[in-house]
Design goal:
single chain; alpha/beta; Rossmann fold; five-stranded parallel β-sheet; two-stranded antiparallel sheet; 7 strands; binds flavin mononucleotide
């Protein structure tokens, strides 16, 4: 059985195509997961809606707690890490990670950045070994995991080679962070022109849905 971790992070509640002000990234993640479950209804999907329930950002109790070895933590330190522990567990258990990623001010939404800060954890998702040329050891390289970043952008030209590629700090940053913890098989599929709408957006959505269908088909 394959386990999918399905993450949404749009502040918009509904899905585009079904709701007048719905989220394009939620539409894309739903398409990927539906396509997967249609072929493999017995697979497990763990869902985390960061847009609806933003994690607490890193705070002053979190940092010393994360850097205290687990057996020596106080009850308060364990409590400070509980939400982060749960998100790390979900990521470690996943074979396929499906992330809905709206571009906000050239980067990712704050709740998704809070998730990133929660899952990059010493001794859980990476280790530090000063004896190595690169001292950072990715702990999620222990078995194959894949990720697809399903991103929505109001403007256009943010993919490699595009006119605004240098301003894209959204899927590019997320890809680097996933690689840092050991998930290197990462794909991006984007819908662009979401603010423009009309036929240009429709064409971008159709193209993204076709690519999602093909990627899910290849991974199934
Ligand atoms: C706070 C905010 C910041 C945004 N910043 C950008 C941006 O930097 N570049 C861009 O192309 N679109 C930007 N947009 C437009 C969104 O990327 C677009 O609405 C996208 O569809 C959001 O994803 P969603 O439909 O899943 O919510 C921004 C939207 C919001 C709400």
């Amino acid at each position: 059985m394959t386990t999918l971790l399905h993450i949404d992070s749009s502040a918009r509640a509904g899905r585009a195509g079904e709701h007048p002000h719905g989220s394009q990234s939620r539409r894309l993640t739903h398409a990927f997961v539906s396509r997967w479950l249609a072929a493999r209804p017995g697979d497990e999907v763990v869902y985390r809606d960061l847009g609806a329930m933003p994690p607490r950002p890193v705070h002053h109790e979190w940092i010393p707690s994360a850097f205290t070895p687990e057996p020596q933590r106080t009850p308060d330190q364990r409590a400070a890490l509980r939400e982060s522990d749960a998100m790390v567990r979900e990521l470690k258990a996943a074979d396929v990670v499906v992330i809905g990623l709206p571009m906000y001010n050239y980067g990712m939404p704050a709740p998704l950045k809070a998730w990133v800060d929660a899952i990059v954890r010493i001794a859980m998702t990476f280790d530090y070994d000063p004896g190595r040329a690169n001292p950072y050891v990715p702990l999620l390289a222990d078995r194959p995991r894949r990720a697809v970043l399903l991103t929505a952008r109001g403007s256009h030209g943010f993919d490699a080679g595009g006119a605004q590629a240098a301003l894209n700090h959204a899927d590019t940053l997320l890809r680097d962070v996933l690689g840092f913890v050991g998930i290197t098989d990462v794909h991006t599929i984007a819908v662009e022109h979401t603010e423009e709408g009309g036929a240009t957006l429709d064409a971008s959505v159709s193209d993204a849905l076709e690519r999602i269908d093909a990627l899910a088909g290849a991974w199934l």
